[in-house]
Amino acid sequence: MLLARSHPVIDLQTLDSLDTDQLRTAVRALAKEVHFKQAAIDKLTHENAVLKRLKFAAQSEAYTGEQKSLLEETLDMDLAAVAAEIDALRPTAKQGEKKTPKRQALPPHLPRREFRHEPDSTTCGCGQPMKRIGEDVAEKLDYEPGVFTVERHVRGKWACACCEKIVQAPVAPYRQEAIFERAGMAIARSTLAQWVGECGVQLQPLVDALAAQMLHHDVLHADETPVAMLKPGNGKTHRAYLWSYCTTKFNPFKAVVFDFAESRGGQHVRDFLGLPGSEQRPGWKGKLVTDDFSGYKACFELGVTEVGCMAHARRKFHELWVNHQSPVGEQALKFFGALYDVEREVADSDSQQRCEVRRRRSRPLADALHQWLLQNRQKVPEGSATARAIGYSLNRWAALTRYIDDGDVPIDNNWVENQIRPIAIGRNNWLFAGSLRAGKRAAAIMSLIHSARLNGHDPYAYLRDILERLPTQAASRIDELLPHRWRPTAPI
Length: 492
Description:
This protein has 492 residues and is α/β, with parallel strands linked by helices. It has helices at residues 12-16, 20-58, 65-89, 189-214, 267-273, 297-301, 310-324, 327-346, 351-377, 385-395, 397-400, 414-430, 436-454, 459-469; strands at residues 112-117, 131-144, 147-160, 165-167, 219-231, 236-247, 256-261, 287-289, 305-307.
């Protein structure tokens, strides 16, 4: 997603005070900003035209009912997201251009809760007391899981007869503007889709901030899982990927960030890690726990330290034992079991204690396993399943045992696989992503939901609160809304 770069706003009075060189510098900065924003607007305008054409074409293409419904919803979400991004790049849009939809009355049978909002002070600046001359009443549908209620927000109007001045408590920055169908009032599916698209744009800065904070930590997990993505134009899907990155279970900073991409190319992980980086913005150079997928290899050539997954190595011997009752597989599992016994014992230890115990107990076990692997490799035929299992461990031995000398490094990649498992299970329900934007939007929302869960929060309460606070939250304080720092606002 394109984000506008921020430059200091220069007013006319400031320009008048600048000398010639400073004025040239200011003009160049402004011209650069205008060029960047115009390029972004042009790109988004083109994307907007493409989406509209796809929406028109989708009505005549041969999709199943399920595919057509999802595609139309996705296009509406994407159109709303593009419109929101264009609006953000055009802060000087004329007031009143956007039409306010006419609302239907909320059903009278729903229970109501009344909230009264009055100004902090009803004394005018001239010192005279103000008189209450009326009120504005706004009703919004509130939803707690399983229960619909109506909130009546009453905002009193206070006036000073002396100054002819009227004051009111401000309106809440984010309000529900429609009625859920289950409450008896239908909402157009396109309207719901537009809300989702706009929410995705609003939440993206939070995910960007979460990813930026994650990259301050020295040990990360990475994994990827395939996701079907619909390709408009042929009614078929192709294989996209959801990449996942998270901190370790030893780290008090709990976070997971999902990144949706059209392919499994290694460039996606390098982009996330900021590699190869530059002098001004160096890329991430920590320890990355992964499986043996080749897409990560280029990262290790650019300064990232590879940490192998012992569970992947064990799994290959487990398959030998389960499928063939292999004595080699059985013996290997005993070695791996002993290594994992140590890990269970030091799970709650601090980093230094964990490292000391690993060096004292895991190192001799690992050395014995290594010697056993070398000896047995000479006894099995080339190309056999046993040879492949042994070869996997021997070829990655340095990466597999790197955890022993660092108490902050985990023995395997299971932690991130556990984070991505709900996504793999969920594929049976949501079938496929409707577009690249839809995939990225889903990844952003899932990043916040899963990170909220990791930090012990109710995801519904978390998302509801931050969506209410985001419109008025200063950009410099957006970190306060990240899952690991979030504190719910006090109830009214």
